[in-house]
Specification:
Blueprint (H helix, E strand, L loop, with lengths): L2 H8 L5 H10 L9 E3 L6 H8 L7 E5 L2 H8 L7 E3 L6 H6 L4 E6 L6 H4 L3 E2 L2 E2 L3 H13 L6 H13 L7 H11 E12 L1 H4 L4 H10 E9 L12 E8 L13 E7 L14 E2 L2 E2 H9 L5 E3 L2 E7 H9 L2 H10 L13 H7 L8 E2 L6 E5 L6 H4 E8 L2 E5 L8 E5 L3 E5 L10 E2 L6 E4 L18 H12 L1 E4 L2 E4 L4 H4 L29 E4 L1 E2 L5 E4 L5 E2 L3 E6 L4 H11 L2 H10 L1 E2 L5 E2 L2 H5 L3 E2 L3 H16 L6 H15 L5 H20 L1
Amino acid sequence: MTDAAIKKRLGQYFSGKKVADLLVGLCSLTGREYVIDPMAGVGDMIVAAINAGVSTENASGIEIDPDAGEQCKTRIEPDNVYIGDAFSTEPYLALNRTAWDLVITNPPYVRYQSMSGFKKDGIRLKSAKETRQSLSRLVSKISHLDKDEKACFRRIIQTYSGLSDLAVPAWILCAALTQLDGRIAMVVPESWISRDYALSIKYLLLKFFDIEYIVEDLNSAWFPGVLVKTNLLVAKRVRYRKSLNEVENSGYKHIRLSANLIGNHSLIEKLTINEKKGYAALNNLLSTNQDISGDGFEIRNIRLDTFLLEMSTSQAYGNLLKKLEPHTKNEQKTSIPMELQEVISSSIVPTKLADLGAWGFQVGQGLRTGANKFFYTKLSKSVGDVDYLVTDKIFKGKTIPVAQKYSLPAFRYQNDAHGEITITKSMLSHRLLYVQEDFYDADGHLQNDKDAPLAKHIANAEKTPIESNGKLTRFQKLSAVKSNIRTTEAPDGLMRRWFMLPVLANRHTPELCVSRVNYKNARCCLIADEGIVVDANFSTLWTATRDKKQTYAMFALLNSTWAQSYMETIATIMGGGALKVEATHIRKLLLPLPTDELITTLSRLGKRLAEEPFLKSEKTLSEIDFTVAQSLLDDSDTNKICTALRAYLQSKINGRQR
């Protein structure tokens, strides 16, 4: 395994001097603090703290990778660097400390699935279960935590999602190590704000900390080559809140910094405020209690109760709270993001808001085949009921005749739409090989001799090597493909083979879809023809009734500036300025309450939008915007609100594309 592969497996993206200096600069250090980085890497954070005045004797690090740990030892006091697992008790026994004034780190953002069984070059990564158990044992031995605090930490450890990144237990560890009046300082991907599995961390923060700063990498420029937008978070440890009702109206500063502030020596070298530059300008910015914006920066003051309110709107949070505080009633509130409220200069009455479920829609993800190089082909021509399909280059691009019942039109990429938002079979060149049990009879012979070319292609695929996780294997042995196999016979005597995809569900043949990665607007596409399969590159929407009136109405609604702005506000900005819109984001959209009148109007506009060329749809989109805004705020200046929303949407798109 290459060094790069090992780094990816460990979630290693070292901070570098510029990021470390900025994070340390937010921590109000006096120089007397005890500082630790439990995922120290090569020591960037620790060195930045020492350069800011912390004594070398008071600065420690833990690193699981021996190579990185040895590099760290060359930069700071060697005896203060422990090479080993930060989730075990041994490092803290060696360092003779479990309470720190500053716990600062860039935790590994790596899924547990990629860690399982990893052991190489002196590194052994714990499984999800082992990490949870080790963390629980460690917390029980931290002396500055009292009985109630330990109990709270244990509940969080027991209930955080198994889908979490390794960063979630890393957060819990860092929080537990932070003593009263100390600070936690973390590098975090922006997705921690929107992902449901991060709710445990938000809960932990509100129970034990006051958030002070969230600093946003506006253009995803701080970690070149990493396709994730980054935030920095600094929070101060306060007395344990037995109830979230104790969250006061204190607030934190949300700061956005653009790429054009970066210089040769720092991320804010070109920041200028009141004739001050760089870190002097930053200190000036941090001292203000006003919302201000300038060349390349913006600062907004957010109240903690607003942070809590936005958490409480999530159904997942309600479920989590039942586990963490079973005696606390979570009154789920209906609230749009503060950023949108500021744009429309008004709060929307909750009774005017509804989620997608109220409109009759469900949200999921398109088809994930597990072996696209086999299952996806391209249409060369059609003759009668036979499609001539061009296979992947791994099969030398051979063309094979396939019965159309095994060849389904597929919407794979945004480019397939050719700039339109109405998707028809005629515009799609991709075809999905959808072979089912009837391909063979009970004795394993072809049901139809005309399928012999496809059978030959399948046999060839079984002998064709393909790379998976850095190793050569066969299609039929891919983990995501093996699950297609059914070894026990069905009542009809037919068996399922590796090349037989599961029966398509509604989410695979939806009525609407939104690309998961968007460089421009996150437009909603209408699947106009039945039988089109939508790939996992899209989040998909469908109704149980397949009611065209509902579909056209939702098509219009999701292409409104309201819905577009909402997605820009809550979805994840990736490196390079792309907006990642997952099903979880779409579920969180709050839309106008569906009424018969509104559905009828939006359906008419949605049908018109579907039938006209998208480049000529400006008038229709304006009517949709007016209808949606009027339904949300019927006592306001609707045209003014529409204008403000369009300006906001464009500013968000421009901001992430710089």
